[in-house]
Amino acid sequence: MISMNRQEVQNSRTKPAEMIGNEDDILINGSSKFPSALFLRVPPSSNKPKYHFLSLDGNPVRDPIRSLTFADDSAGISILQSCNGLLLCRSNRRTGEYNRNYYIYNPTTNKYTILPQPGNRIPNTIFCVILAFDPSRSSYYKVVFVRSSRSSPYLYQLEIYSSETQLWSFSSEIPKVNYSRWAYCCGAIYWMSYSRNFLCFEVDQERFREIPMPEIPDDWGQQPICRYFRELGGRLHLILTNGRHSTRQFDVYEMEKDLSGWFVKYRVDLNALISQHPEMTRSYAHPSDWDYHAFSVLAVVCKESEGSFMVLHIPGKAISYSFKDRTCTLLHDFAPGCTDIEGCTTFEGKDVYPYIGTFARVGSWPLANVG
Fold it and tell me: Where is the F-box associated beta-propeller type domain positioned along the sequence (predicted)?
């Protein structure tokens, strides 16, 4: 267990003063826990990135490409994370990490708040920032910063902001692991560590523990390829593929409810899809290369009663893959007529931010109001 410094730091920023009206009274638990759309960051990334709004329910989208303009930020704003209807955003390219603005934004209500600066923050490196929000547990959220240690290059430190108390807490120094690949699910943050186990941080209890990796076949080598690692609908899913050879078939793992480990939830076979879309095959690559077939997993939507599916991106297209009958449906054609894999728009998992409609508040005080 890590220890938190209880000499908490009061916010140094004045609280926003405008109200959002009667929307505060709407129960956030009445919102859907499944995404109706995905924000896709359009490559290449720029100082002011644009996003494609990909509908998952078949409804047309009036404004498919949009920039984030909810706040007047001259540096531009980019999305870092989507968490149960709220977006964690950051201003771009300001001088010094500690001078950046971080925003919590609700795209449904078009409300946002700016995270206050801790009173004693010093210039240091931020390795990741994570929004921890679960409306089934609380209407409040926390934001976890993983930062470089003040005393050692081999240690890190957690800096945690609570919207309930509007205070910052600081952890004792923690081990240095790969904090770049992570997911938040049901009150806990999961990191893929160097030991091939998952490091789990229970946010409210402020403690770490390890969860084993699924068993990997011996012929996969030491480093399997992580194709997907994300939470949706309160379920954490993981997709690993062979790091030595190309694959058309793979498993989708789901975390056990007691957080004890993983089990195979779905089995995927992409043979039919690859046959229908020859542009998925990289002609310049060797058939044994792990990336011989071009695809990325954008979302795993586990809706048992309505039908669970996976959203794939293949060159120029977004595809819905049904786990039940292995049929594929075109969601959107980003480049009609594209036959050259190099000339097509490419989206990766890191470019995806699920959109879930909610009236959740973005702060425990009167909120900043846009428009």
Answer: 68-254
